Amino acid sequence: MNNIIKAQVAARANQTLRTACITGTGSYVPEKILTNADLEKMVETSNEWIVERTGIEERHIAAPDQPTSALGAKAAQRALEAAGVAPEDVDMIITATITPDMVFPNTACLIQETIGAKNAFCFDLEAACSGFLYSLDVAAQFIATGRADTVLVIGAEKISSITDWSDRSMCVLFGDAAGAAVVQHRPGANGLLASVMRSDGGLSDLLKLPAGGSRMPASEETVKAGLHYMKMNGREVFKHAVNSMVGAARDAMESCGLTIDDIKLVIPHQANMRIVNAIAGRLGGAPEQYFINLHKYGNTSAASVIVALDEAARAGRLDKGDLVMLIAFGGGFVWGAGILEWWTP
Ligand code: UT7
Q1: How many angstroms does the Cα of residue 234 sit away from the middle of ligand 1?
Q2: How many Å lie between the centroid of ligand 1 and the Cα of residue 331?
Q3: Atom 18 in ligand 1: which residue has the minimum CA distance?
Q4: Are the CB atoms for 195 and 4 separated by under 8 Å?
Q5: How many angstroms is it from 169 CA to the middle of ligand 1?
Q6: pLDDT by residue, tens only, the chain of 345 residues
Q7: Do residues 270 and 142 make contact, with C-beta atoms less than 8 angstroms apart?
Q8: Which of 236, 258, 279, 310 is the most exposed, fewest CB within 10 Å of its CB?
Q9: Which domains does the chain have, with CATH numbers?
Q10: Where in 185-243 does DSSP place strands (E)?
Q11: Which ligand 1 atom lies nearest to the CA of residue 269?
């Protein structure tokens, strides 16, 4: 266990650092639904294979005129409404995404303009499917030091824009969505109790989008070779995802002296039902402690965990004081786990 994490947990518990609570959440999924039956007409696959190997039944796909910022802005507006916060009162916007509208300006700036958060400073954070979790911890650090009071943390993805629709091993897995959380200090409330963030760049080749960056700028050849689409070694990623998420979750619980029985709800990254089952098998706890919505949305990368958290909250699965554990894993590799004491007014 990392001593820095332990020190942060202790400082938050002693209230020597300002704690950071989620005070409102929101999410948005585009209207268009792509079912497994639709995919059967596009590539050589079957509903049986997809359901058995992944648990995914359908996913939502953004319209051509709906970039990531449009999805993120809708989720952000819903989160602000839930928190009762006016857009002008937001100090900082972080957007976690691997599908920014453009390389620059950053997607958070584009969302700022749409929602009218004119007093915020804005940046994107790229940590693939762990992006929301990483961004939540960054927000908590700014709040801890008093550098920001109200932070909007958004996970938004138009993964359909980087999906090879002729590759059956990839196109059945992903979907588009956005989620957002308002993060603020609430005196006396514990908020984010623990956060474990880990990375291993040595495994970056296993999941990546090869072209379009400075290493391999876009050219006729890169387009012809399909190098602007995500590439993944599914089996290897699967193995690492399970081991890494279990390790991070155990470290997060240990850092606060908790066991799985203390956690009301676990929200794992929604990539594959078999991954969730493997994690649950090793962490223990009852099946109803694990929140699942991947059958409806597929893997929505940085949006995955926050969309699930928003759905769980709106479905009444969390009461004030409940502990919720978020766990994520993505390309980089980047992974982590966070434990949050749920706050409501
Ligand atoms: O968000 C970042 C984290 N990402 C993940 O967590 C994804 C991790 N990986 C996975 O979820 C799984 O590895 C997959 C769902 C991607 C694949 O499942 P798998 O059980 O590992 O299958 P596989 O890749 O080993 O492929 C098994 C077979 C292959 O055929 P052969 O070689 O055995 O003849 C594939 O060609 O399934 C075939 N296959 C398909 N068949 C029908 C691959 N995709 C499909 C498909 N429909 N869509």
Answers
A1: 6
A2: 17
A3: 53
A4: no
A5: 6
A6: 566 667 767 777 776 789 999 999 999 999 999 999 999 999 999 999 999 999 999 999 999 999 999 999 999 999 999 999 999 999 999 999 999 999 999 999 999 999 999 999 999 999 999 999 999 999 999 999 999 999 999 999 999 999 999 999 999 999 999 999 999 999 989 999 999 999 999 999 999 999 999 999 999 999 999 999 999 999 999 999 999 999 999 999 999 999 999 999 999 999 999 999 999 999 999 999 999 999 999 999 999 999 999 999 999 999 999 999 999 999 999 999 999 999 998
A7: no
A8: 236
A9: 3-184 (3.40.47.10), 192-341 (3.40.47.10)
A10: 192-199, 207-208, 231-232
A11: 1
Say which residue the tokens 């990254």 belong to.
269
Residues serving a catalytic function are: 129, 269, 299
Q: Are 131 and 279 in contact (CB under 8 A)?
A: no
**Ligand 1, pocket residues at CB < 6 Å:** 45, 49-50, 53-54, 129, 168-169, 172-173, 234-235, 237-238, 241, 271-272, 275, 299, 329-330
- Return the residue whose CA atom lies nearest to atom 42 of ligand 1: 45
Alpha carbons within 13 A on the beta-carbon side of 197: 15
pTM of the full structure: 0.97
State whether residue 209 is helix, strand or coil.
coil
Contact present, 192 and 318 (Cβ < 8 Å): no
**99, 160, 215 from 265: Cα distances, Å:** 29, 29, 41
pLDDT for position 345:
86
CA distance 210 to 223: 11
Token look-up 């893997």 returns: 299
